[in-house]
Amino acid sequence: MLENFFRLTEHKTSVRTELIAGVTTFLTMSYIIFVNPDILSTTGMDRNAVFVATCLAAAIGSLVMGLVANWPIGMAPGMGLNAFFAFTVVAAMGFTWQQALGAVFISGVIFFILTITGVRSWLIAGIPRSLRAAIAAGIGLFLGIIALKNSGIVVDNPATLIGLGDLRQPGALLAILGFFIIAGLDALKVRGAILIGILVVTLLSIFLGLTQFQGIVSTPPSLAPTFLQLDLMGALSVGIFHVVLVFVLVEVFDATGTLIGVAKRAGLIEEGKPNNLGKALFADSTAIAAGSLLGTSSTTAYVESASGVQAGGRTGLTAVVVAVLFLASLFISPLAASVPPYATAPALLYVAGLMLHELVDIDWTDVTESTPAALTALAMPFTYSIANGLAFGFISYVVLKTVTGKATSVHSATWLVAALFVIRFAFFAE
């Protein structure tokens, strides 16, 4: 049955290979079940409910990806947008987490419409490569400053805005240790390096009496505190429209880039031949909407899926295995509740460093390309907002291209996004 449904022979793979690939992918991305509740609980959301929502959203997304698209790609709530959800939309802008969930749901619906109408392709083709690279790098910097703050390495300083924290504090020392464990293990190609780093720091914290051990296995907690708690009417207010815009733009760029990148590596996309990208994007948009109903930020395809492809994964059976393992993770909620912020901070910081690799795709010899890209990346951490980074980047891009006589080279999609951000600053200032 598995052979016929997933067409294993056609893809030159086997059940055993797909199982190994699924476990490999899960190990490299499972850190999200600890990191996501830690981030979203800062908004007042119930941490245990977010844990359940994270596992279920990842399972649903991966299952749909495997069964509908037959691609070996795992899905889960995305890093970056979860931080934007918590620290910008809720903490800085003052919206409730229920309204933020409503915005995520609306963005998922819009993503679905953009995909089935073909507008997504127009949008992707119209956004400059330099800005796409800068968005990923900027989100990395945003995650980086959050990680350094959560670990106590960077603190508030009235004289200089930010400063160095007390590195003698246990939390800072454990975060530093965790970072080097993750980086060292990943350099040695150890699978699950990020997960291992989180667990080692958590165990040390418990052993030193800094964290209370709450157990390892139990029945799954209640999802009720976050299930169907989204506030759609609140999300439809004019003041939050640019939040929806940011969710949509990042979801489209992130999902499309990851899906194409991993699929090409697996040999699933070949020039001139039909492929399942449309079905994969359908899975992505479905997972976003489902996640918001469950109680978590935007769900997206994980670039860590490349590790499973490297292990031989070529079909949706890999993704189905990932889904099953996320469902099994529902029973380790006490362990997730025992993880302190300085244990997840090293994971955030390491992922931040990986995302900065995108800067190599920027043409630094062309000022009209590099300057908007730099503004995009820098504005995200320094204004604590992905939205502001996008706005600075798009607006400066069209301005510099116009004043240098290159306005006709700017795609209409870039003009549209820039105009929307100008309207936002002019009429809907925070």
Key features of this structure:
single chain; 4 strands; 430 residues; two-stranded antiparallel sheet; 20 helices; globular
Could you give a short account of the major beta sheet? 2 strands, antiparallel
What is the residue-averaged pLDDT? 83
Total number of helices: 20
Which structural class matches the secondary elements?
mainly alpha
Give the low-confidence spans. none
The helix-strand sequence is HHHHEHHHHEEHHHHHEHHHHHHH
Which term fits the overall shape? globular
SSE inventory with pairings:
Layout: H1 2-6, H2 15-29, H3 32-40, H4 47-69, E1 75-77, H5 81-92, H6 97-117, H7 119-126, H8 129-150, E2 154-157, E3 161-164, H9 170-187, H10 193-207, H11 232-235, H12 241-265, H13 277-294, E4 299-301, H14 305-310, H15 316-328, H16 333-337, H17 341-355, H18 367-382, H19 386-403, H20 412-427
Antiparallel strand pairs: 1-4, 2-3
Helix pairs in contact: 2-15, 3-4, 4-13, 4-15, 6-12, 6-13, 8-17, 8-18, 8-19, 9-10, 9-17, 10-17, 12-13, 18-19, 19-20
What does this structure look like?
This protein is mainly alpha-helical and about 425 residues long. It has 20 helices and 4 strands. It has helices spanning about 1-5, 15-30, 30-40, 45-70, 80-90, 95-115, 120-125, 130-150, 170-185, 195-205, 230-235, 240-265, 275-295, 305-310, 315-330, 335, 340-355, 365-380, 385-405, 410-425, and strands at about 75, 155, 160-165, 300. A two-stranded antiparallel ribbon has the order 1-4. A two-stranded antiparallel ribbon has the order 2-3. The longest helix is centred in the middle third of the chain and has 25 residues, at about 240-265. The chain is globular, with a radius of gyration of 21 Å. The N and C termini lie far apart (about 55 Å). The model has no long low-confidence stretch (mean pLDDT about 85).
